[in-house]
Amino acid sequence: MGVSGVFNIDSGLGFVIILAFILLFTKVFGLLFRRIGLPQVLGYIIAGIIIGPAIFGELCGFSLIGLNKADSDVTYKALFVLNGLNKEGEIFSMGTDGLAIFSKIGVLLLMFSTGLETNLEELKKTGLAATLIACVGVAVPMVLGILIALPFAGEDLGPDNIYNCIFIGAILTATSVAITVSVLKELGKISTKLGTTIVSAAIIDDVIGIIVLSVVTGVAKAGASGEALTGFAWFKAQWWGTLIMIIAFFIVAIGLGFGISKLFKWIDKKWPITHRIPVFSLVVCFVYAWVAEEIFGVADITGAFLAGIILSTVHRASEYTDKKIEVNTYTMFAPVFFANIGISNITFLGLNGMLFLFAFLAVLMGLIGKVVGCGAVAKCFKYDMRESAIAGVGMMARGEVALIVTATAISAGLPEKFMIMTVLLILISSILTPILLKLLYNKEKKPPQGGEPEEVQTEAVAVETTAEASTVSSEDNK
After folding, report:
1. Rounded to whole angstroms, how far apart are CA atoms 358 and 146?
2. From CA 400, how far away is CA 206, in angstroms rounded?
3. Phi-psi bin for 83: left (phi > 0), alpha (psi -120 to 50), beta?
4. Residue of 263, 273, 260 lying closest to 317 (CA atoms)
5. CA of 413: how far to CAs of 165, 220, 353, 401, in Å?
6. In what order do the strands lie in the sheet with 62-67?
7. 347 close to 59: Cβ distance less than 8 angstroms
8. Residue 199's closest CA among 117, 141, 318, 309?
9. How far apart are CA 103 and CA 304, in angstroms?
10. In Å, what is the CA distance from 210 to each residue of 123, 304, 373, 386?
11. Of all helices (H) and strands (E), which one includes residue 67?
């Protein structure tokens, strides 16, 4: 059993040709999806599915890139084989190790860039409304996701797999800032009070969602740990120990962040717009990610994201850094990360009607949870029904963060088959969000035809009356 192919990826040069195909296909599919109005990241995942083993390998018998898995007995042929067989017939992992490394760098850079782009001043301005919308936008979909997962015990969910159910809920909490922002910009509503509130709430939503993921991941790993642990390892393996370590990480990270922020302000003042700033920024990003995961047991993406937020306080340096890092991220590492989801984490073998039923219900709960939860909070802040609906729909889109959360959950024990749910969630929400937002904004009250709005006309009359009174007064004085 195993995958046979023309070329086994057993060297660095062999991995380079894999990168070439990934970059080519992700770019082509990304452009195609952008042309039809869908997120490019969805095209990247589809590209990974097309060149990977999910369809043409496991179902059709031949794929461009094959993948030997230790727990799979599927046999097919591939042009290039990752995890090929060496001379002794043993599986080696040159190819997938390379993809894993590039993917890890990609996801860390994505979260770091998201942190750099976070505007703390805007978050302060929107205040209570955005924060409560975000909190409810996390809580309602998560609860609905857990509840909908409990009856599906036959699909590795249910009460006996409670951590998997919680992971499903955590996946449904994410919101795509990019999709919402692009639609609001297109409609010219990004700078309105409602638009600013939605964008700020989406950013806060992602922050809370990532924190929730860190807690769930840490507790799940603690619950799965063996009983023979001693000392500090035993402490971190307890659920209460995990929570203490997560709190300690944020205290230490934020405390050090004040010093790091001052250091970067000094560097930016002494050597503005120089390459040393992005390099030092990457050092902070990777150190925070490593310390978060290895020392405190917090998800590494949380460390990278928090590093970005800390450096976002140094405005000129953060903008310069983001521009430099964005080139490498979206040229190389991010496409590899998203394509690797399609190559390594998606399979159509073993999928059944019950899994698709669950995926459909979970997606439905994810969409309803955002619209109802966020819309209800907006209504409490005296937005009308149409504006409340816009707030709910604006928080409905899913994108990169949902994929990152899912990939992290899979690494913590969630079965790979649930990646299908996330892909469907992104696809459906990405199609519905722009359509519904445009429909809702088109219902906005328009000024009467043949003249200016009533308020403007009233103001004009008032101005004319004042002008006439001024003229009369001037003539009387003469």
Report:
1. 12
2. 11
3. left
4. 273
5. 11, 8, 23, 18
6. 3-8, 76-82, 62-67
7. no
8. 117
9. 14
10. 17, 11, 19, 30
11. strand 62-67
Beta-carbon contacts of residue 36 (< 8 Å; ≥ 6 apart): none
d(CA 5, CA 79): 5
**pLDDT per position in the chain (478 positions), as tens?**
467 767 777 677 778 888 999 999 999 998 998 888 777 777 888 898 888 888 887 777 788 887 776 556 677 788 887 765 555 656 656 566 778 888 888 888 888 887 887 777 766 766 788 889 989 989 999 999 999 999 998 888 989 888 889 889 988 988 776 667 667 766 777 667 787 788 778 877 877 877 777 777 776 666 555 455 566 666 766 667 777 887 888 899 999 999 999 998 888 888 877 778 888 999 999 999 999 888 887 778 778 888 988 888 887 888 888 888 888 888 888 888 888 878 876 777 767 788 889 999 999 999 999 999 999 998 988 888 988 999 898 888 887 778 778 887 888 788 888 888 888 888 788 778 878 888 888 876 655 555 444 444 444 444 444 444 444 444 444 4
* Angle subtended at Cα 119 by Cα 125 and Cα 217, rounded to the nearest 5 degrees: 110
In terms of C-beta density within 10 A (0-12 exposed, 13-18 middle, 19 or more buried), how is residue 314 classed? buried
pTM of the model: 0.71
- Residues paired with residue 15 on neighbouring β-strands, in sequence order: none
DSSP 167-231: HHHHHTT---HHHHHHHHHHTT-TTSHHHHHHHHHHHHHHHHHHHHHHHHHHHHHHHHS-S---H
* CA 222/CA 375 separation, integer angstroms: 36
User: For residue 432, with 0-12 CB atoms within 10 Å meaning exposed, 13-18 middle and 19 or more buried, which class applies?
Assistant: middle
In order, the DSSP letters of 433-459 are HHHHHHHHHHTS--PPTTS--HHHHHH
Dihedral of the CA atoms 152, 153, 154, 157 (nearest 10)? 80
Cα distances from 9 to residues 13, 48, 157, 381, in angstroms, run 8, 17, 36, 58
Residue 53 is given by DSSP the state S
Amino acid letter at 33? Answer: F
Closest CA to 420 of 345, 325, 344, 370: 345
Residue type, 185: K
Rounded-to-integer distance, Cα 171 and Cα 425, Å: 10
Residue 104 CA neighbour count, 13 Å, CB half = 14
Task: At 372, list the tokens.
Answer: 């109802």
The helix/strand/coil state of 109 is helix
Phi, psi at 397, each rounded to 5° = -65, 145
